[in-house]
C-alpha cells in the first residue's frame, strides 16, 4: 500500500457552508480531490487539503522535485488554482507551497 500524506493549501472561513461545493471537482496537487478539514479553533474555520503520494512529498523527494521545473510548475499551478477558488468566496490565508502533514 502506498503511504499517503496530506497537502495543505490554505486556511479559510466557511461561514455559509458552501466552500466544499465550490471545490467539488477542482483538481488539486497530483490531480487529487480537494476537501475541507474543520479546525478546532472556530466552527467556520477550515483548511483546504488533498491527499498526495508520500513518495513525491516526503522531505528527500521534495528536495529533488523542487529542482525539476516541470514538476514545480505543475504543483505551483494546482496550489494557486485552489487558493484562487477559495479567494473567490472568502478571505483566505494561503499556506506555503508544498506544505504537507504526515498523518
Describe the fold and architecture.
The protein is an alpha+beta fold. It has one domain (4-101). Helix content is 34%, strand content 32%. The protein is built from four helices and four strands, in the order βαββαααβ. The protein has helices spanning 19-23, 54-57, 59-65, 69-87, and strands spanning 4-13, 35-38, 45-53, 92-101. The radius of gyration is 14 Å and the shape is globular. The model has no long low-confidence stretch (mean pLDDT 91). Keywords: Gas vesicle. InterPro entries: GvpL/GvpF.
Question: What can be said about this structure in brief?
Answer:
This protein is of the alpha+beta class and 103 residues long. It has helices spanning 19-23, 54-57, 59-65, 69-87; strands at residues 4-13, 35-38, 45-53, 92-101.
Helix and strand layout, with pairings?
Layout: E1 4-13, H1 19-23, E2 35-38, E3 45-53, H2 54-57, H3 59-65, H4 69-87, E4 92-101
Antiparallel strand pairs: 1-3, 1-4, 2-3
Pick out the low-confidence regions. Answer: none
| Number of discrete helical segments | 4
Helix share bin:
25-40%
**How many strands?**
4
Task: Quote the distance from N terminus to C terminus.
Answer: 15 Å
Describe the global form.
Answer: globular
Average pLDDT: 91
Report on the biggest sheet.
4 strands, antiparallel
Round the Cα radius of gyration to an integer and report it: 14 Å
Strand arrangement within the widest β-sheet reads: 2-3-1-4
Number of domains: 1
User: Strand share of the residues?
Assistant: 25-35%
**Class by SSE composition:** alpha+beta
- Series of H and E elements: EHEEHHHE
Keywords: Gas vesicle
Family: Belongs to the gas vesicle GvpF/GvpL family.
Subcellular location: Gas vesicle
InterPro entries: GvpL/GvpF (IPR009430)
